[in-house]
Amino acid sequence: MRLSAVQCCRGFLASALAVLFVFPPTLFADTHLVTPADMQRELLAASQRREHNQKVVQELLSSDVGQKALQSVHVDQVQVTRAVSNLSDAELARLAERAKQAQSDFAAGALSKEALLIVAIAVVVVIVIVVAKT
Questions:
Q1: pLDDT (tens digit, 9 = 90+) per residue, 50-73?
Q2: Does a structural domain hold residue 16?
C-alpha cells in the first residue's frame, strides 16, 4: 500500500504537534522577563515608599494642627491611624503629597495656621470617606 501525500503531511503534522506538547515552552526559555532579584528590589522599594507616605500623613495628623483638625471633625486619632493603614498605595501617596505640600507651604510662610488646619481637616475627611467606602 502506498502512502498518499495527504497521509504523509498528516503524519508529519501529528509528529510535530506531539513534540511541541511533550516539551514545555519554559524548557527552552533561558531568561525570565523579570528576575527574582529585580522583583525583590521593586517590592522592597514599594514597601519603603508606603512606609514613608504613612509617616508623612501621621506626622501631619499628630501635629498640633492635625490634632485640632481631628477634634474639629470629632474623629478619634486611633480610628484615623487605622484608616491610614487601610488606604491603597495610590490614595496614600496622594494624601502624603498633599500633607508634604501643606507643611512646606506653612514652613515657607505661604499658609497661615488656619489654612493649614483646613488642609489637615480635608486630609482627615478624605481618609474617613475612603475607608468608609471599603
A1: 999 999 988 888 888 778 877 877
A2: no
Max CA-CA distance within the chain? 99
pLDDT tens-digit readout, 86-124:
888 998 898 889 888 877 776 776 667 777 777 777 777
Which among 89, 87, 90, 118 has a CA at the least distance from the CA of 102?
Answer: 118
Domain count along the chain: 1
For residue 116, how far is the Cα from the chain centroid? 27
Q: CA 91, CA 123: separation in Å to the nearest integer?
A: 11
Identify whether 113 is part of a domain: yes
| Domain-embedded: residue 1 | no
Decide: helix, strand or coil at residue 50: helix
In a domain? residue 9:
no
Name the nearest CA neighbour of 86 among 47, 55, 119, 132. 132
Q: Which domain holds residue 44?
A: 35-133
Identify the DSSP state of 78: H
| 94 contacts 50 by C-beta, under 8 angstroms | no
pTM over 0.85: no
Report yes or no: 46 and 94 within 8 Å, Cβ to Cβ. Answer: no
